[in-house]
Design a protein that fits this description.
This protein is mainly β and about 120 residues long. The chain has 1 helix and 10 strands. The protein has a 6-stranded mixed sheet, with no helix packed on it.
């Protein structure tokens, strides 16, 4: 069964950091590009970063470029999103999913940036 489970959200002050984790089952990471998405209240879900399966090529949306870093640890079957210099506008529910043909979104993990 192909499964992705995200975790690591929380409350952080502006300028702070968080690391999100996306645990994958089986050999998902070797076969599929994985993306991080977010959805703020009242806004559409947006893709903010992804990492490819074979060459680990990465992509970042302009809104997070230079602040967020996506990495992959094959030994742990996990994709990470390191988020630095967080801003209030980063507040959202964050999801990891297959970059192409996303599956069920679930509840995501909440990130709240507030003083």
């Amino acid at each position: 069964q192909l499964q992705l489970v995200q975790s690591g959200g929380g409350l952080v002050q502006p300028g702070g950091s968080l690391r999100l984790s996306c645990a994958a089952s089986g050999d998902i990471l070797q076969k599929y590009a994985i993306g991080w998405f977010r959805q703020a209240p009242g806004k559409e879900r947006e893709g903010i970063s992804c990492i490819s399966s074979r060459d680990r090529h990465t992509y970042y949306a302009d809104s997070v470029k230079g602040r967020f870093t996506i990495t992959r640890d094959d030994a742990k079957d996990t994709v990470y999103l390191q988020m630095n210099d967080l801003k209030p506008e980063d507040t959202a529910a964050y999801y990891c999913n297959f970059q192409n043909n996303p599956r069920s979104w679930g509840q995501g993990t909440q990130v709240t940036v507030s003083s």
